[in-house]
Amino acid sequence: MKALNSFGFPVLRFNFRGTGLSEGEHDQGNGEVDDVRAAFDWLEAEFHLPLVFAGFSFGSAIGLRAACPDERVRAVIGVGTPVIPVAEATEEARVYTLDFLRECGKPKLFISGARDKFSPREKLEQLVAGVPEPKKVIFIEGADHFFEGRLREMRDAIEAWVKDAISSQPSAFR
């Protein structure tokens, strides 16, 4: 959030349905894609600017599904994108299908902690190898899934990537 805001992008953080104080019930990722689309609609109506999507963990897996086909979104960032099943204490294992990324031609950044148990290096590298350019994957050494103690390094990596993306494709971000 801070990295994107530092470039002047308006940032919207929200809880998916059934999380925190939000209304509704968790919908196994289906209705949550609609939540992301509604957020895009609001951002477009409010600011009339190109959109950059960034999501963390579940938000990354679900948000990328909404962002890749949306023409308003110019670039996508997946942080801690789960590439192996995630088991929650109160739920069945969540399995994310990310095959749609093979059709995503937008600039893509994937950031993972080098010790992320839901996004292990080998599995994330396999995923990224199968998606079209432009793409980049960054592993933050010493970081776990939540980047505990490594948030600054994550922010620096995002800022450097956004700066490069804007300078190489300035018209896409206007």
Which descriptors apply to this entry?
174 residues, alpha/beta, Rossmann fold, 4-stranded parallel sheet
How would you portray this structure in words?
The chain has helices at 2-5, 30-47, 58-67, 121-129, 151-168; strands spanning 51-56, 73-79, 108-113, 135-140. It is of the alpha/beta class. It has a single domain (2-173), classed as Rossmann fold (3-Layer(aba) Sandwich). It has a four-stranded parallel sheet, with helices on both faces. It is globular, with a radius of gyration of 15 Å. It starts with a helix and ends in a 6-residue tail after the last helix. The model has no long low-confidence stretch (mean pLDDT 89).
- Poorly predicted runs are none
CATH superfamily: Alpha/Beta hydrolase fold, catalytic domain
Q: What's the mean pLDDT score?
A: 89
Sum up the overall morphology in one term: globular
**Would you report the number of β strands?**
4
- In percent, how much strand structure appears in the residues? 5-15%
CATH topology: Rossmann fold
CATH C-level class is Alpha Beta
Helices and strands, in N-to-C order?
Answer: HHEHEEHEH
Going by CATH, the architecture would be 3-Layer(aba) Sandwich
